[in-house]
Design a protein that fits this description.
2 copies of one chain form a homodimer. By secondary structure, the first copy, chain A, is an alpha+beta fold. Chain A has 5 helices and 5 strands; from the N terminus they run H-H-H-H-E-E-E-E-H-E. Chain A folds into 2 domains: 4-83, Arc Repressor Mutant, subunit A, CATH 1.10.10.10; 90-138, Dna Ligase, domain 1 (2-Layer Sandwich), CATH 3.30.1490. The first copy, chain A, is 43% helix and 22% strand.
DNA sequence: GTGCTTGCAAAGAATTTGCATAATT
DNA sequence: AATTATGCAAATTCTTTGCAAGCAC
């Protein structure tokens, strides 16, 4: 599982990116690895009183840019991060509890690819989000 | 065109929503109607020194909730508004100049509908964004 | 040792809220 | 007259930055 390897491979990941493996970064990575779903940067900050806010935000950005984390936007635009399982995926976002789930569809991917060819300009990527009331929130 | 009617029909739109047709709201609507593409709330605020910031933000939110405006999120999560031409559409967002264009595909819509049925929970809506470098920014 | 990192606090950016005043119906 | 709306400033929220002191390599 990627969740395990994040914690175990932080040092390697960081060095490959030309960054140093430090204590605070390992602490952040260890906490992220323990997270199931999506989380906000602030929530990580609150759970790590021993690490400065700036370091938490910087590390999360670092890992997001490295592709270790992926970012989803809630309907109001606020970002949530989650471990990127590296297969390309989209998001199912519950408007009620703000839970973010992953979603994949090869058929959708194929169509998006086709459409990309028809779009003027150079398509860099796409993002598909479904906003919903999740089964839990439906009671 | 919807662009024309927004300016002309603000009073009607507001009253249908149970709100009052006021001078500041008309000023905001008139400016919005003159906009071609997407804009930020702040940019509208800056262009209307005679109207308070709070009123600008409140009016934009009012019109967005009424479906007169639609909101797109830039890759960093910051919102951009544009006149909603009421046909369901998606967005082509230039990562370089931040221009937002509309995009429609009946084939995409059909597939998203099908997928919605397979998704657990009650799907409320979806959002598809293509991030790209627009023809202008490609030089 | 040299240079990247950290943590703190301050700075920012964007948006919302409280409240007395003003305008609409 | 009864409310709703406005505008200003202050408050919020989330995130970034400056910089001296501290680590990693």
């Amino acid at each position: 599982m990627v969740t395990d390897s994040l914690d175990a491979r932080v040092d390697e990941i960081l060095k490959n990116l030309g960054h140093r493996a430090t204590g605070p970064r390992r602490k952040v990575a260890r906490l992220l690895a323990s997270k199931r779903g999506a989380f906000s940067a602030e929530s990580i900050n609150e759970e790590l009183p021993g690490v400065g806010r700036a370091t938490v935000y910087r590390t999360i950005r670092l890992l997001a840019e490295a592709g270790v984390l992926c970012r989803a936007l809630l309907p109001d635009g606020s970002p949530r991060y989650s471990i990127d399982h590296s297969w390309h995926h989209h998001h199912l976002i519950c408007s009620s509890c703000e839970t973010v789930e992953e979603f994949r569809s090869s058929e959708l991917e194929r169509l998006l690819c086709e459409l990309s060819d028809e779009i003027p300009g150079r398509v860099l990527g796409h993002q598909v989000d479904f906003y919903l009331t999740c089964p839990d929130c439906l009671q």
